[in-house]
Design a protein that fits this description.
This protein has about 600 residues and is an alpha/beta fold. The chain contains 21 helices and 18 strands. It starts with 14 loop residues before the first helix and ends with a helix.
């Protein structure tokens, strides 16, 4: 019998081949995964590169200095989100620029002059202190509606003791002019040692609060509860008189006048004894006082909000248009603006002292952030210019005789009307702005207007408020007679000027400027007086104790300029040359010489 091979079980499989196979699988999977990862990295890199295939784009923002630092903080946040618009990677740069400077640069339209060296890169987004500035640029400059971002009411910065007196007396905006001009007026508020109100009115760069406060005073005086004050209201007697009082009272304050709001606020805060200082109050935004208190804690400067419609610096976001702003820039400006409106970003502005809708006030300040029932709507550029014109060049009480050339050349056409019509219209506007206590009169001259005399007294010089005229007051009579002026014949300037000057010296009013204002468009053609005769006669008629200046406005070309300049120089007057009666230059010259 054969024997079978004995064993304990089935033959085992060798481990070597299995291990080798496993290593091969691992290597294959690893290589496959590496290629997949490499492809993914490549795809991601291509996608990232594709997102900014057009490169970088910098959004320029011009922001008023009072909000620029906070907008820069938020701009850095926005840039950190890596925004991409139209295949451009967007970053934001913020330049602090005073609102008035941006307004002036944009006022000529979308292609207006922009000085990069002075103002920084031309912006696609402008955040001025107030909508007032946006209303003063042409509509074509702004793309869409400029909506407010962060508001701050215009208030008066005062010391604590003064705030208590103002609050107790419930002072209104319209009360400020009388408190500014009345002798010892603050005694009515229980401040017998303080004299009259010293309200600062800085008009330099960074003083937008002054303009808003002036509008509030004007609206209150005009009885307009919410504005906007119109150009007609701005030019009314009651408004111009009130603003003149404010301006003259400020000019009369002792010491140097601060050019900016910040300088005025520093003077107020640094005063050892506010009752003895010239400045008692400064128009500011609430946020400016909040910032000042953070920078100098411990000061007793606080805010007072006069009763009446409250002007507000609302810091609108205005997207600009023009050749320097392309579609990418416009979209970036819009996206950044929406980012600023998010509550998280708004809180940054609220913490800086601005009022942001839906967000609370800072709790680390002594300021109360009071509510106000009515917001003053900002005036347009014409009304604002009229009001600030009074503040910058107030019409002082004076005694002046207007000597108006009505020769035939004044009837020449210049613009839509005649040279004479343009001149009388500019004079009438200035008369309407003059204070009631001023004394004005009107003479006309040509040849043979009153018998053989070349001149005639149309309205005798005297107080504007005086009555007894067919038209009512002297002011009304002047306006009516100016409207009736008609051209006559020749130009007897020398003889008429001699007579007007002698009359002005005889009727001299002490304590104020006395003058003769000559308005003419041509050379003297009357041979009764020579140049030498005129200068000698004026010298003989002059009286050092009764100084009367001769101011002259000459329109167009005038071969008598040398004589007229000598007349002005020898009497302490001024000569203004305007190329045409059609345009603002004539009114500016008249306003300068009668202010």
């Amino acid at each position: 019998m054969g024997n079978h091979r004995g064993g304990k079980g089935a033959r085992g499989v060798s481990k070597g081949p299995l291990i080798a196979l496993g290593l091969v699988v691992v290597i294959v999977v690893g290589v496959f995964g590496w290629f997949q990862l490499a492809d993914r990295i490549k795809d991601q890199g291509a996608a990232a590169a594709g997102a900014c295939v057009e490169g970088d784009s910098v959004l320029g923002v011009a922001a008023d200095p009072d909000i620029a630092a906070d907008i820069r903080t938020l701009a850095n946040r926005f840039t950190a989100t890596s925004p991409v618009i139209r295949d451009h990677c967007i970053s934001v740069t913020v330049t602090p620029v005073d609102s008035s400077e941006v307004r002036d640069a944009l006022i000529t339209g979308p292609d207006g002059a922009w000085d990069d060296k002075l103002l920084g890169p031309r912006p696609a987004l402008w955040i001025p202190s107030s909508s007032q500035w946006v209303r003063q640029v042409p509509p074509a400059v702004v793309n869409g509606e400029a909506r407010p971002l962060a508001a701050s009411p215009v208030v008066l910065a005062v010391r604590a003791e003064f705030e208590n007196a103002l609050t107790t007396a419930a002072v209104e905006w319209k009360d400020l002019p009388s408190l500014q001009t009345g002798r010892g007026s603050l005694a009515t508020l229980g401040l017998s040692e303080w004299g009259s109100l010293g309200l600062a009115l800085p008009v330099g760069s960074g003083s937008g609060s002054t303009e808003l406060a002036v509008e509030a005073v004007a609206a209150s005086v005009a009885g307009d509860s919410a504005g906007p004050i119109t150009a007609e209201q701005a030019g009314s007697i009651q408004v111009t008189s009130a603003l003149t009082g404010l301006a003259l009272g400020y000019q009369a304050l002792p010491g140097a006048k601060p050019a900016t709001t910040r300088e005025a606020l520093t003077l107020l805060a640094d005063a050892d004894d506010p009752s003895m200082e010239g400045i008692h109050a400064v128009p500011v935004t609430e946020q400016q006082v909040y910032r000042a208190l953070r920078e100098a804690p411990g000061s007793d400067v606080t805010t007072f909000l006069p009763k009446g419609a409250t002007p507000v610096a609302d810091h609108p976001a205005a997207i600009l248009s023009g050749p320097a702003v392309d579609e990418t820039q416009s979209r970036a400006a819009a996206q950044f603006t929406e980012f600023l409106r998010e509550p998280e970003q708004g809180q940054v502005l609220a913490d800086a002292g601005f009022r942001v809708e839906g967000l609370g006030r800072p709790d680390n300040t002594a300021l109360t952030f009071p509510g106000f029932p009515t917001t003053l709507l900002p005036a347009d550029s014409a009304a604002t210019e009229a009001m600030m014109g009074v503040i910058r060049n107030p019409v002082t009480e004076r005694t002046s005789t207007i000597l108006l050339d009505v020769s035939s050349s004044m009837g020449a056409g210049e613009g839509p009307t005649s040279r004479l019509t343009n001149t009388t219209a500019a004079l009438a506007a200035q008369v309407s702005r003059s204070p009631d206590a001023s004394s004005l009169g009107l003479w006309e001259y040509s040849t043979n207007l009153d018998g053989t005399r070349p001149y005639t007294t149309v309205v005798a010089t005297g107080p504007l408020s005086a009555g007894g005229f067919i038209e009512g007051s002297r002011r009304q009579a002047l306006g009516a007679r100016l409207a009736k002026a008609v051209p006559a014949a020749g130009t007897a300037t020398y003889a008429s000027l001699e007579a007007a000057y002698k009359s002005a010296v005889a009727g001299y009013t002490p304590g104020r400027t006395n003058s003769v204002l000559l308005l003419t468009d041509g050379a003297n053609d009357d041979g009764s007086l020579t140049r030498a005769d005129l200068l000698a006669s004026l010298a003989a008629a002059g009286d050092p104790s009764k100084p009367v200046r001769i101011d002259i406005v000459t329109i167009g070309q005038n071969s008598d300029l040398n004589t007229l300049q000598a007349v002005a120089d020898r009497t302490g007057g001024s000569l203004e040359k305007v190329p045409s009666s059609d345009g603002p230059a004539l009114a500016t010259a008249i306003g300068k010489l009668l202010s």
